[in-house]
Amino acid sequence: MAVVSNHMTSDILTVPEDERLADAAKRMVERGVGAVLVLSDDRLEGILTERDLMKAVAAGYSEDAKVGDWMTRHPETIEADDSTGHAAALMIHGGFRHLP
Question: How much is the pTM?
C-alpha cells in the first residue's frame, strides 16, 4: 500500500502569522512552492496558499497585511503513514492541492 510518506516533502517552508503577506509571498517564490505552513510555537495554525494570495490581491490588500489576515485557518491534515488514496480523497473532496 502506498503511503503519504513516500510522496511528501519534509523540507517545508514555515512562517509566523504576523509575517507580512508580501514577505511570505517573496519567500514562496524564492523556494518555488505554492504553499507555506503557518506555525505558532510549533503548532499548525493555518496554511497560506497561492489561492489565498490571489484573494488578497483581488481584494486590494494593504502593504501591512499579515499572513494571519489571509491564511486558511485549521486546514485538513494527514499523517505520514496514511494511504495516498486517503490523501487523494481528502484533496479531491475538499477542493485543495496542499495537504499538511
Answer: 0.90
